[in-house]
Amino acid sequence: MATPFWKYHALGNDYLVLDPERLDFPLQPLAIQRLCHRHFGVGSDGILLGPLPAPGADFGLRIFNPDGSEAEKSGNGLRIFARYLWDGGKVGGEPFYVQTLGGLVQAQVQNQGQQVQVAMGRVSFQSGLIPVTGADREVIQEPIQVQGQTFTFSAATIGNPHCVILVPEATPALAQTYGSALENHAFFPQRTNVQFVQVLSPERLRLEIWERGAGYTLASGSSSSAAAAVVHRLGLCAPAVTVEMPGGELAIRIAPDFAITMTGPVTGVAQGILASDIFAG
């Protein structure tokens, strides 16, 4: 049986969707790496495997990074998965629930599939939940050293770990130069996503992102959620903000308990059949 795939992007962050019932090979790390490779595979920032059975939810979803590791949660991935379900007639315009490794989320497709809103869950700054090494605490504005440079970071989780660094100017060079070292820093036993954040105004942030297991990334929904929560926790932005990234913009709403609602676009790219010799060589 040939395996079909669907490809979408959310602000330039692209994923392949695979239906587990139509998968004719084991989805192991080497296979994931090949599928995501820009030259030897289809090319993507990750793989979404679903829908899967999920007690207590309408659908289950597993999310894989291009290095073959499994991610707990992805805001862009969740929006893409919601659009895929809508395209396949599995959902309409009503809210529905998706179970991820990083927790239960609610999603709703809007504007005839062009936009998706996701209730991402509640952000926590507690070190034991993120996790960050050391005493149990809120990880807010602490020093971290990489490559001879000292930054001040805050850490957060929204089901996956984030290292948030405020800077006067967020540039691609910052993420590309320091992202890998921060991702793999000893402070983060499960590695971390990294965001460099520039506060443009109380209603607008600019992000540059290094994604755990993926590298430099044009946009990220969970990164936008975590970064906005940190900036709001520091009293530097409003509870409703626009997050600007190289790939485009997301709308983030932060509730008093730091529950996050994210809204943004999804674009279809392609669908096809994986060739029988894609894993050869």
From TrEMBL:
- Alphabetical list of PANTHER family matching this protein: DIAMINOPIMELATE EPIMERASE (PTHR31689:SF0), DIAMINOPIMELATE EPIMERASE, CHLOROPLASTIC (PTHR31689)
* Domain of life of the source: Bacteria
Site positions (Could be important to modulate the pK values of the two catalytic cysteine residues):
H162, E211
NCBIfam families attached here? DapF
| Family the UniProt entry places it in | Belongs to the diaminopimelate epimerase family.
Question: Any idea where this protein resides?
Answer: Cytoplasm
What are its E.C. numbers? Answer: 5.1.1.7
The pathway it acts in is:
Amino-acid biosynthesis; L-lysine biosynthesis via DAP pathway; DL-2,6-diaminopimelate from LL-2,6-diaminopimelate: step 1/1
Give the record's subunit note.
Answer: Homodimer.
Q: Does the keyword Isomerase apply?
A: yes
Q: Which GO terms describe its cellular component?
A: cytosol
User: What functional role does this protein have?
Assistant: Catalyzes the stereoinversion of LL-2,6-diaminopimelate (L,L-DAP) to meso-diaminopimelate (meso-DAP), a precursor of L-lysine and an essential component of the bacterial peptidoglycan.
Q: Which residues bind substrate per the record? A: N13, N65, G75, N76, N160, N193, E211, R212, G221, S222
Q: Keyword Amino-acid biosynthesis, does the record have it?
A: yes
Q: Listed GO molecular functions?
A: diaminopimelate epimerase activity
Q: Which SUPFAM superfamilies match?
A: Diaminopimelate epimerase-like
Which species expresses this protein natively? Answer: Gloeomargarita lithophora Alchichica-D10
Chief location: cytoplasm
GO terms (BP aspect): lysine biosynthetic process via diaminopimelate
Name listed for the protein in its UniProt record? Diaminopimelate epimerase
Report the HAMAP family cross-referenced here. Answer: DAP_epimerase
Report which reactions are catalysed by this protein.
Answer: (2S,6S)-2,6-diaminopimelate = meso-2,6-diaminopimelate
> Which principal EC class is assigned to this enzyme?
isomerase
